[in-house]
Amino acid sequence: MKPKVKILTVGKPEKWAYPAVEHWKKRIQALGDVEIISLRSDTKKLDDIVKSPAEFPIALTRSGKMLTSPQWAEMLEEFAIVGIVPIFLIGDAEGLPQKIIAQCKRRISLSPATFQHDVALIVLLEQIYRALTIMAKLPYHRGE
Fold first, then answer.
1. Which single residue of 32, 89, 91, 139 has CA 20 to 30 Å from 102?
2. Tally of CB atoms within 10 A around 19
3. How far apart are alpha carbons 47 and 55 in whole angstroms?
4. Residue 15 DSSP one-character state
5. Helix count (H) and strand count (E) of the chain?
6. Measured torsion, CA atoms of residues 21, 52, 47, 97, in degrees rounded to the nearest 10
């Protein structure tokens, strides 16, 4: 069974980001399923997703826990085993509202640095791909 992941971005990626997003989506599709959902800055829709019992929302935020690539793989593998589909939330230029971050089941940081939201999406996609290759025991990841 292929692991499934959802990514929710507040605002659509800009034109320059599309080739990189499509590149990583295509690579991920060989190992798992990824769905990217773009919303306008609509706190009501974010609220509905965060409160939905069918979703496992994870806020991407500077104050979240930083994971190693093997820890990303462990997390995605645990979700896949129990049939949970995580939904990673990426804010817009203003970030995610604090009340949304507080309601998420997990908070993860991609870096102590602040990334523009399109860059965060690309980094997240690459990290998901890396985690899936670790799970599949493919030679992509060379760290640790």
1. 32
2. 9
3. 12
4. G
5. 5, 5
6. -60
Query: Which residue do the tokens 């979240």 mark?
Result: 64
Two tokens at 42?
Answer: 């609509």
Q: How far apart are CA 28 and CA 71, in angstroms?
A: 18
Q: What is the 8-class DSSP label of residue 135?
A: H
- How far apart, in whole angstroms, are the C-alpha atoms of residue 140 and residue 8? 26
User: What is the distance between the alpha carbons of residues 109 and 105, in angstroms, rounded to a whole number?
Assistant: 14
Q: How far apart are CA 23 and CA 101, in angstroms?
A: 29
Task: Note whether 121 and 7 are within 8 A (CB).
Answer: yes
- The closest alpha carbon to 10, from 52, 56, 60, 76, belongs to 60
- How far is 119 from 105, CA to CA, in rounded Å? 23
- pLDDT tens profile 26-74: 999 999 999 999 987 666 777 777 777 778 999 999 889 999 999 999 9
Span 33-42, pLDDT tens digits = 999 999 876 6
